[in-house]
Every structure is written in C-alpha cells, then in structure tokens.
Specification:
Order of helices and strands: EHEEEHEHEHEHHEHHEEHEHEHE
Structural class: alpha/beta
Radius of gyration: 19 Å
Number of strands: 13
Strand order of the largest sheet: 10-9-8-13-11-12
Strand content: 25-35%
Distance between the termini: 33 Å
Largest sheet: 6 strands, mixed
C-alpha cells in the first residue's frame, strides 16, 4: 500500500467500519460550554453527551481542522514513504478544505518524490462516510491512487446526501431560517428535508408535514434516482435518536433487498447545525 486515505470528522461512518478501517481520520474539536473535546466516530458516549447538552438548551460549537493538524498528519505519512489522498468536508460548509490545500503547498517542495492529492467531493456527513467505505474497498482490491482519483472525479457528482430534520430551532440558531419561519414551522409540524446540492452547500429540498411523510419522500427519491451500477452501498445516519433512521432502513431493505445498507451516528459537526433527531441517507443517484 503506497498511499493512505485521509478524511476528517465531517465524514460520518458506520462504527464497525470506523474501528476496523485503515483510514486516517483527523479529529475536529467540539465544545460543550467551556470544555473542548475531540469527538471521533467511535466515541459514542461522548457524542451522546454532546447531543444531550443541546437538548438541555446549552450552547455547543465545532471548529475546523487547522493548518498545523493537517501538516502534522500529512508529514507523518509522507515520512513513511507513502502518498496522501485526502477527502473531507465540502469547501462550501467549512474552511477546512482550504487548510488542507495550504498544508499541501507548504509540504510539496519538502517531499518532491511524494504525492499529496486533495479532493473536494462536495460532501459531508454520511456522504463522506459512504465514500470512505467505497474507496477503502477499492484500495484493498489493489486499485492504484490514480484509479481512486478517477472514480472520485467521475462519480462524486452522483453522490446524494439527504437529511430529515426533527426540529427547526437549530436551523434558526445557525442562521439558516428566520425566527418566524422556525416558529410557524414547528407549530405546523413541518419537517424540512435538506440535501447537499451540486455545489456542496446545504439547501432545502422539500418541506413535509411530519416524519412519516418525510421518510416516504426520501424513499421515493431513492426509488427514482438510485444508481446501483455505481455502488449498491447505502449509508443511513442518525443524530442521537435512531427511530427514524431504523424505520428508513427497514423500509428500504424490504423494497430493495440487493441494497447493502448500514447505519452510522451523525457526528458533532453536522449535528451542531441541525440538532438531535436528524436522520440522513447517502447513496449514488442520478442527481443529488
């Protein structure tokens, strides 16, 4: 293996995959009050504490991966004689991607015989986690760095990530909707569906009355758009409460028995913006 695949905490992965994979994950810092933590994908108790802190009405925040962290991670791999392949959060959602680019510029002359590839698949959350599963499988099958780069280039635009949001108050706190919209929406039991658009930004996909209708819409989208010719893998995420995610998984497995569906906890980065109760689905589709 002449290259290492690297991501950051914005890629929400299945827990068993995270524990057993060779992928390097650079942690992002999350704060609960005046305490700062690095919540990685296997620290479920700590992640649950983060959501409980939100449920209690307390403030939380997350920070991007800084330049020093990227340089340290990349250099450890380059010193070991391996190339670097980094995929992280969309540049429309965080400044993390730019820090990775700067780290590459700072290191490329020192390691002229090595490659540092920084890719922006314009994804986050379970979209990033699903891409990690596919790329590691390709690496284990013996595919080269160039073959992985070609897959990313050709197929990232088909990677759909859609989210169901349980409460509008966190979108209001994040400045994505007004206080009036949040109040009316909660009163009417509106459950917004959000997706990562073609540019890699979060956008409203549809508004539904209640979670049952929202789940039906996600299944309908899947039915109309799924491209299992690219991959039959599907990743469904949940933020603290997993009932909707499990229901979505159950219904999809009944209708699409050839789909390989896994669950993944939603990390603190995306979770801090949309709150506990969010659920997501990521898969390759005709359109995002």
């Amino acid at each position: 293996m002449t290259y290492k695949i690297i991501t950051d905490n914005s890629s929400d992965m299945n827990v068993e995959f995270f524990k057993n994979s060779n992928i390097v994950t650079i942690p992002m810092q999350s704060s609960m009050g005046d305490k700062i933590y690095e919540i990685t994908g296997d620290k479920i108790d700590l992640l649950n504490s983060f959501y409980e802190h939100m449920i209690e009405g307390n403030s939380v925040s997350t920070s991007q991966v800084n330049l020093k962290a990227f340089e340290s991670c990349f250099e450890d791999i380059l010193k070991d004689g391996k190339d670097v392949l980094y995929l992280g959060i969309s540049d429309k959602l965080s400044g993390t991607f730019q820090n990775a680019q700067t780290a590459k510029e700072n290191l490329k002359d020192k390691y002229k015989d090595r490659r540092i590839e920084i890719c922006n698949p314009r994804q986050a959350s379970t979209g990033g986690g699903l891409m990690m599963e596919i790329l590691e499988k390709k690496q284990k099958d013996g595919q080269s760095l160039d073959e992985l780069l070609e897959f990313i280039k050709e197929n990232s635009k088909f990677l759909a990530s859609q989210f169901g949001v349980d409460s509008l108050k966190y979108l209001y706190k994040g400045g994505r909707i007004s206080k009036t919209q949040a109040g009316i929406g909660d009163f009417l039991r509106v459950k917004p569906l959000i997706h990562i658009d073609d540019e890699g930004a979060l956008a409203i996909l549809k508004l539904e009355r209640g979670n049952k209708k929202a789940i039906k819409t996600l299944i309908s989208n899947f039915r109309d758009n799924w491209r299992d010719d690219i991959s039959n893998k599907v990743l469904i995420g949940y933020a603290y409460y997993d009932e909707n995610a499990k229901k979505l998984k159950e219904l999809l497995e009944q209708e699409f028995p050839n789909a390989e569906i896994k669950l993944a906890p939603i990390g603190s980065l995306i979770g801090s913006h949309v709150g506990p109760g969010m659920y997501s689905i990521s898969y390759f589709a005709k359109k995002r």
